Amino acid sequence: MRARVAVVFFVVLLVGSLSAPVLGLAAGGDSSGAVAEPTGTETASIGAASSSASSLSAASSASSATLHRTTTLRQLPDRPGTYEAEFSFRVPDAVTELNVLLTPDATVQSARGFEGGDEKGTVRWTEMTDEPTLRVTLPANRTAVGRSAVAATGPSGSTASATSNASPATAATSRDGYSFVETGDWGIVQVPGGFSYRYTAPVALEETVQVDGPGATGGDIAVFGPVTEYERAVDGGSGTIRLVVPDAADLQEEPEAIFDELEAARNGLDVGSASDELFFVAAPTDADWGPRGVQYGRADAWVAADAELSDPGSAWLHEYVHVRQGYTRSSVGTTSETAWLVEGQADYHAATLALEHGLIDYADVREFLADGERSPYDTDVLAEPDSWSDDRTPYVKGRLVYGELDRQLRLATDGDRTLADVFRRLNAREEPVTEDALLAALEDAGGEDVRAAAEKYTRTKAVPEMWDRDGHQQAFDQPVAEFEYGIDADGIRVAGEPWGAWRHGSGENGSFGSVDEQGGERTIAVPADESVRIPATIANTGDRNGTDDATLQVNGDVVDYQQQRLEAGAATTANLSWTPTKLGTYDVRVGAEKLTAVVVGDSSVRVTDLTLEPETAAPGDPIVASATVEATGDGPGATLLEFRTAEGKTTIPVAVAADETATVEHELRFESPARYEVAVGQQSATVTVENRSRPPADLEEVPGFGAPAGIAALVALLAVAHVLSLRSRRP
Question: Which intervals hold domain CARDB (predicted)?
């Protein structure tokens, strides 16, 4: 057992698929689905072990500060409807507690370094090994999905909800179809395994999910059985769309056509919360499915293999819209009054994307939206889920109301604002999307009349009338302002200092830390819990005035957002900010421009040498302290390096690449004769300050960090002087 010291604890909850809900779809026809969000993990691509493996979380820059978890899934052909999951951990010293969160229907087959399980299904790490493992079997067939809340204990022991989503659980309809299934020949299942941990210092999380045997996974959804996998690089090669087709599936559309539409949706839906990695599965249709598709996790989804693209409620596009709904994730979510928004929004944007791409025409959109005027949906109140007479109400009436609000917003602002702008604003929230928050966002964008329309159509039984073709052209065919966004690399500041002013290493990797492009990418190193300011460049490239939307995304999540009016042809800059709290590697984006931020802890840099020049100086003379530093792990290091003396400390930022050293210099001055100690990290050195006109007194005083022996000598001298002074005054 490792000896551990309990200091101030922090907790991270990673809510995984075992206890998590699903973002689902009932697209078209008479099927329906459910909406929710399974994971609270920070994610970044760190490379997969194979085509059937997926890495989910931020890669560490120092392996000793990384919590590793590998989830291996196995099909059990002799036990249809069941599958096996094995979790293997490597636990760093900073982690003091680790719990795996299982659902009640999970059965533990073996455990090494874990014990028991309480009534909530929590299996606890015993600390007897740094590499504990747990193997469980799980039921694969799921017919109902919903939301769950997991509490997180903060540093003071207070409790907060890791998911604030209070929306009611919505089954995959009472038609009793499956949302996940395993047949023995093939299966599409949830990747299980939520877990929580406590730590005493920042750690990175590195998670790999893999299928043992035929199949594939995107990290949140896994496929069992033989498959054919297609892949397309997007975004200049920085993003990937994967399409997995089981041998048991008969795909209706050509893979290239699906890629074309998903890529076009990725580029056309400017609402933030984009993901670099998409994983879509074409589901065999010989199962008793409830929904026509389910989006689950961050960017994984399955869609019925016979789903068509030329459908106003296309399951392919509907599920992609769910991927972009960052506000639905467990850390934000909706309330019951705004639960309708998630599916109504997905249906509406799927239809408008299909219209923009030429897959359908206005008549198709009109018919699709007008269904919301009819029974049984027309008398339901969207903000009151208990009033819904049909579980498809949020889809059918929701998309009509959402579309009417988009139309009124466009008219109220002469096309300057759309519901995509409100969508983006919701994605920037860190708190649940309440009814008040939604109404406020609509009012800010379009004024009181737009808010009043939203109140009318969501709080009452009122139903908007579907607009005609002329009304559509009037609202949706208006010219709009065109903007280009980028990053002013020279203006980036980390911990309040210009990034270019950070001390960087020299040698083969000496360009690390600069913001010059290196192989098409820019990289900065950021100490955890320090602010990062990214200046966003904005240019109105069109011929009309408009409102820009500068958005800072980190690993697809909107972390900051600003808007302002900008005249045609004008340009400006908006300062966006982010303060990372978890170690790892992150993609930071503004518009189409991207940089990589490596977030590291204080221990990522080690001081290996410290010299003072000169070693003897006169009072007030400059003394240069030179500290040599290196990265401690496999990746870069960065810290605010402290030069400490008895008179105080000075902080200098430094960043250094792996396998490289950097020299950081700092000028010191001491005004009084003495010997002074200077310390940087674990290194220290001493300088003697003396008057050059006479030899220094033979004192042992060394102002620094040891016992000030010279003080006693000084006190003794003052006492002697005082006695002599008294004697000289005697008559």
Answer: 528-595
Q: 3-state DSSP call for residue 117?
A: coil
State what percent of residues in the chain have pLDDT above 90. Answer: 66
Helix axes of 469-476 and 362-370: crossing angle, nearest 10 degrees: 100
Strands 497-498 and 114-115: unpaired
Cα end-to-end distance, the chain, whole Å: 79
Q: Note the pLDDT of residue 597.
A: 92
Of the given ranges (26-40, 150-164, 285-299), which has the lowest mean pLDDT?
Answer: 150-164
Interatomic CA distance for residues 359 and 314, integer angstroms? 10
Which structure tokens are listed for 76? 């059990």
CATH topology of domain 602-719: Immunoglobulin-like (2.60.40)
Torsion of CA 417, 419, 420, 424, to 10 degrees: 100
Domain with CATH 2.60.40.10 in the chain: 483-600, 602-719
Q: What are the C-alpha distances in Å from 374 to residues 364, 459, 502?
A: 17, 18, 64
Indicate whether 60 pLDDT > 90.
no
CA distance 643 to 645: 7
Among candidate residues 563, 564, 551, 408, the one with its CA nearest the CA of residue 476: 408
Average of per-residue pLDDT across 506-514 = 49
Tokens of 516: 């010059």
Strand partners, 498: 493
Distance CA 488, CA 510 (A): 22
User: Among 530, 527, 526, which Cα is nearest to 515's?
Assistant: 526
Confidence of residue 506 (pLDDT cuts 50, 70, 90): low
What value does the mean pLDDT of the chain take?
A: 82
pTM: 0.81
What DSSP letter does each residue of 30-75 carry, written as one string? T------------------SSTTEEE-SPPPSSGGGEEEEEEEEEE
What residues pair up with 574 in beta bridges, in sequence order? 536
The proportion of the chain whose per-residue pLDDT surpasses 70, expressed as a percent, equals: 78
Burial of 149 (0-12, 13-18, 19+ CB in 10 A): middle
Give the Cβ contact number of residue 131 at 10 Å: 11
CA distances from 547 to 418, 561, 575, 714 (A): 11, 13, 16, 70
Neighbours of 682 (CB within 10 A): 9
Angle at CA of residue 274, ends 269 and 275, nearest 5°:
140
What residue has token string 């469980």?
136
For 450-469, what is each residue's pLDDT tens digit? 999 999 999 999 999 999 99
CA distances 60 to 205, 319, 391, 635, 637, Å, are 7, 31, 44, 8, 11
pLDDT digits (tens, 9 = 90+) for 281-312: 999 999 999 999 999 999 999 999 999 999 99
Amino acid in position 405: L
CATH number of 483-600: 2.60.40.10
CA dihedral 38, 42, 44, 50 (to 10 degrees): -50
23: β partners: 295
Query: What is the rounded CA–CA span in Å between residue 77 and residue 69?
Result: 26
Q: Cα–Cα distance between 252 and 655 in angstroms, integer?
A: 52
> Rounded distance, CA 572 to CA 149, Å?
42
Please count the other Cβ atoms lying within 10 Å of the Cβ belonging to residue 448. Answer: 10
Residue 255 phi/psi, 5° resolution?
Answer: -55, -40
Helix then strand then coil, in percent of the chain rounded to 5, is 20, 35, 45
Q: How many CB atoms lie within 10 A of CB 237?
A: 8
Rounded distance, CA 53 to CA 71, Å? Answer: 9
Q: How many angstroms separate the CA atoms of 261 and 356, rounded?
A: 11
pLDDT in tens, 363-403: 999 999 999 999 999 999 999 999 999 999 999 999 999 99
